[in-house]
Amino acid sequence: xxxxxxxxxxxxxxxxxxxxxxxxxxxxxxxxxxxxxxxxxxxxxxxxxxxxxxxxxxxxxxxxxxxxxxxxxxxxxxxxxxxxxxxxxxxxxxxxxxxxxxxxxxxxxxxxxxxxxxxxxxxxxxxxxxxxxxxxxxxxxxxxxxxxxxxxxxxxxxxxxxxxxxxxxxxxxxxxxxxxxxxxxxxxxxxxxxxxx
Amino acid sequence: xxxxxxxxxxxxxxxxxxxxxxxxxxxxxxxxxxxxxxxxxxxxxxxxxxxxxxxxxxxxxxxxxxxxxxxxxxxxxxxxxxxxxxxxxxxxxxxxxxxxxxxxxxxxxxxxxxxxxxxxxxxxxxxxxxxxxxxxxxxxxxxxxxxxxxxxxxxxxxxxxxxxxxxxxxxxxxxxxxxxxxxxxxxxxxxxxxxxxxxxxxxxxxxxxxxxxxxxxxxxxxxxxxxxxxxxxxxxxxxxxxxxxxxxxxxxxxxxxxxxxxxxxxxxxxxxxxxxxxxx
Lengths: 197, 280
Fold this sequence. Notes:
Strand order of the largest sheet of chain A: 3-4-2-1-7-8-9
Low-confidence stretches of chain B: none
Oligomer: heterodimer
Helix content of chain B: 40-55%
Strand content of chain A: 15-25%
Strand order of the largest sheet of chain B: 6-2-1-7-8-10-9
Order of helices and strands of chain B: HHHHHEHEHEHEEHEEHEEE
Number of strands of chain A: 9
Helix content of chain A: 25-40%
Number of helices of chain B: 10
Structural class of chain A: alpha/beta
Shape of chain A: globular
Distance between the termini of chain B: 65 Å
Mean pLDDT of chain B: 94
Largest interface: A-B, 23 and 21 residues
Number of strands of chain B: 10
Radius of gyration of chain B: 20 Å
Distance between the termini of chain A: 18 Å
Mean pLDDT of chain A: 93
Largest sheet of chain A: 7 strands, parallel
Structural class of chain B: alpha/beta
Radius of gyration of chain A: 15 Å
Order of helices and strands of chain A: EHEHHEEEEHEHEHEH
Shape of chain B: globular
Largest sheet of chain B: 7 strands, mixed
Strand content of chain B: 15-25%
């Protein structure tokens, strides 16, 4: 799987729901230590389990892993997880912001809220990746990413533990890439060198 | 002659003009609110008011009488729970209440009370700890409709199971059902709790200190402000707290943008409860 970007990717936004822990356990460790992009992740989880995210992912990843606090600055090569019960937004700056607004598509954090605000902040320097999940969260966000010129990557529904979320996105947009987890890992491994003109 | 600017930059211009218009026409100051949330809320309002652009929405809110009141709901209303983050209330009971007992009378400020859930939670906690009779709770918000709902103390019965669970986890010693009566699909909270609560209009963006407090609780309000407005609000709290007074904020919020950040000490780091340092 070869990628040709016209410009560097500054940010990667990832959304996942049911089956997301397993998918992310494969995909996030594939990001090399010299990745420059900042990585934002919304994962729907039962409230009680959510705050263990850093403990679960930090030992497996080559990049530092953090759970977001309000107005945290954004560092390159860092993975940021939305905290439980808060929407994660990319605000002007760009900087990280949280909200307790109503759930979107029955979800808080919502993938679409992250994708829409990241699209506004990064435009064509954003890569958005939508992984396994039930429900429709993320579809509207993918549309916003595409409209802003960002790169859209959707997990191939047949390879997803729950195909509904990827399918809902593919109903709305023609994604730039529809990939299996193995292909996504290959793409991530090549990322620091992709887009360097 | 150049073409029109890109859509994103037009949106930014329109957003700045809209919040200026609201400030000048209605004296509500959203100019220092965090932009990403504000933008999302305004886009929801555009759909509701059938406007294609923020400029159209601005025209309507300046020229039509009922539009602003409804828009204010979109800009300010938050959903809340009673005893949200039970560990916060547990920490108040265990680490703050013992010191509150030493005061003959107590003033407590719930800043940004929205529809009142936190104010009632605080009143119930104080009742359980035997402190309500000597307490006055100021519950403030900028939205008059939210304040009316708070004063009414009527909530959706469907939420009561969560409220009850949270109350129990917070270390509640009584049964939550002692404090409300149910009717159809609603519950109404006991008037006696309200005797010690003053609901009133106050803006953290434009108003100043109004009383000396032993405890200020302002949770999940600062996240909607930019750094400068966070700093203003935190400075107000610092100014209104008595010596060794307590401040509680949201679990993902911080004091770092306050010019007084150094003059607070942590009481419970996990629960974001602080105490104003005793400066001699």
